[in-house]
Amino acid sequence: MKVQEGLFVVAVFYLAYTQLVKGQPRKECQTRCGNVAVEYPFGTSPGCYYPGDESFNLTCNEQEKLFFGNMPVINMSLSGQLRVRLVRSRVCYDSQGKQTDYIAQRTTLGNFTLSELNRFTVVGCNSYAFLRTSGVEKYSTGCISICDSATTKNGSCSGEGCCQIPVPRGYSFVRVKPHSFHNHPTVHLFNPCTYAFLVEDGMFDFHALEDLNNLRNVTTFPVVLDWSIGDKTCKQVEYRGVCGGNSTCFDSTGGTGYNCKCLEGFEGNPYLPNGCQDINECISSRHNCSEHSTCENTKGSFNCNCPSGYRKDSLNSCTRKVRPEYFRWTQIFLGTTIGFSVIMLGISCLQQKIKHRKNTELRQKFFEQNGGGMLIQRVSGAGPSNVDVKIFTEKGMKEATNGYHESRILGQGGQGTVYKGILPDNSIVAIKKARLGNRSQVEQFINEVLVLSQINHRNVVKVLGCCLETEVPLLVYEFINSGTLFDHLHGSLYDSSLTWEHRLRIATEVAGSLAYLHSSASIPIIHRDIKTANILLDKNLTAKVADFGASRLIPMDKEQLTTIVQGTLGYLDPEYYNTGLLNEKSDVYSFGVVLMELLSGQKALCFERPHCPKNLVSCFASATKNNRFHEIIDGQVMNEDNQREIQEAARIAAECTRLMGEERPRMKEVAAELEALRVKTTKYKWSDQYRETGEIEHLLGVQILSAQGETSSSIGYDSIRNVTTLDIEAGR
């Protein structure tokens, strides 16, 4: 009996302790005031709100209006927020600038604090206000609004008629003081007052005409307060906290203390012992069960039950179970399908292997057909040891030219097409796709590769390598971006604006490169097709000699070779044309024609030239003989200061184009004379430094070709090219 009495006393003591610690409200507590619900820990009478903190004690007046202190309550959130209405501050003036009204807001929030969801706002012209707060520490800030008319932009509080700044959380004392810079005399008609107030973010939309005049007659604004239980954390209160069943505790984000919330699957008031009640997901349609399943509510959750003949998957969906006989046929079908797929995959792999082998054999066939064996033989055989030819792959060339797209075409000619290519390292090159038809042209292509690979000169286009795996071979050059000398002198793509200094320098550079080929290369090289269309110019107008498809290496023990005549009409050496004997003087003659083109600006062979032979060499001689030398010189070139230089250049051109090769100078001598001519000044008179006109006439007069030499075409794969078209065979 004594044990039972002891247990009864303990139970009574526990219930009294629980009521004291958790402070649960009485059953008769008011739960609504007007249209605002009053929920624990808030209350309106003793025993109905959280004990020990008068901040939770709200007042419901006779008009059914709920107040927190002197602030009307809008609503409350059990997650830790209370919305109230806070009076605005203002200062007003008459038209003379005399103060007529002043209200400064001063508010104490008890144990509650300002939320960071509020904004400090100032409305008025030439106005400013201060916000002073205190809590754990003091904080002050201010805002300035400037304007001179009521036509400021609506909806914006950026400082013109309206200013708005954030407010930090955690402060329990607020003081707002409005001011004016000049007491509003100039704006009194539309803005007699300065207004300052706190307002919840997004709850004030500025309208200049209404707000600057009387702030739309609004005296209070919604403000968000943070609240929490006590001054300890969840860990410190442990089970002694106010949180009820099926709830959890979390530390307040607005300052000290803690708040409560219902667990997932429960809803209600977490501050009451049984405030968090289970949510019936099956009734509230908060479940995700499929149409074939049945929802079953459980405490804090739910289950999706599948009917007979169905099974539940991971997404709470019910799928029909597979019958044994159906499963057996499914196995057979899947086995057959997988087996067939394996066989087809094997056949596909075999086809790919065969296709790869055929492609490899085809590339090897093209390699041999395009002279790969010949190239390897010549590189590895007797001859110069400095040959360095890079072999590019078919795949690399296709990617570099974007599949040989027509937008990449730089030009087309008798020997093929030239594309602009971009290599993987982003370097730009010119890719020449040869147009070959027989064995001799393959040999000429390989010859061009070998010749260019041995040349290292700044005025000779540099070959980077070749690709022989394609149906027609490809040659990869450095990219020269400013066209040919022919384009600049006669073409329509560029203005014919080369000055005499440009032309003399170009002539000197070409002469120097030919002298190098004839005298300084490991084995002498005769270009055999020197013409303006085979001289490229870069962006600095530096000359680059190109197109070595017709070039020949001269053995060290020979001075000339007997070959099939090859070249271009107008530039072709008459002696070589008549005898078939090729030597370095053939290049000298062709260079002389190029020099005449630079002097005259006229084409080497032109059938539309009036009163002058069609061949430029004959035309030059005829003009000199008839005292019309000045007429043949390009008008853009000659002036009073360079007549002697042009006369000297004409003399060099005349010597280079003599009929007999033995009477022509060597390219080394021509290059030296042109280089010396470049550095000469014009301070000496014409008569003191240069030969008489008669001597020029003699030099040019003996060069007139016969009618046969003038109109006959050269023999070879490049002999019938039209010199009036854009020729870029050199790999631009």
Question: What report would you give on this structure?
Answer:
- The chain has 732 residues and is α+β, with helices and mostly antiparallel strands.
- Among the domains are: 70-226, no CATH class; 372-478, Phosphorylase Kinase, domain 1, CATH 3.30.200.20; 485-553 and 563-711, Transferase(Phosphotransferase), domain 1, CATH 1.10.510.10.
- Helices cover 30% and strands 23% of the residues.
- It is built from 19 helices and 37 strands.
- The strands form 12 sheets. The protein has a 6-stranded antiparallel β-sheet with strand order 3-4-5-6-17-10, with no helix packed on it.
- The longest helix has 46 residues, at 324-369.
- The radius of gyration is 51 Å and the shape is elongated.
- Residues 7-22 and 681-732 have low confidence and may be disordered.
What gyration radius follows from the Cα positions, in whole Å? 51 Å
Q: Under the CATH scheme, which architecture of the domain at 485-553 and 563-711 would be assigned? A: Orthogonal Bundle
Strand segment count:
37
- CATH level-1 class of the domain at 485-553 and 563-711: Mainly Alpha
Strand order of the largest sheet: 3-4-5-6-17-10
Q: What profile does the largest beta sheet have?
A: 6 strands, antiparallel
CATH topology of the domain at 485-553 and 563-711: Transferase(Phosphotransferase), domain 1
* Multimeric status of the protein: single chain
Shape: elongated
**Distance, first to last CA:** 117 Å
Strand residue content: 15-25%
Family: Belongs to the protein kinase superfamily. Ser/Thr protein kinase family.
Binding site for ATP: 410-418, 432
Protein name: Wall-associated receptor kinase 2
Transmembrane segments: 330-350
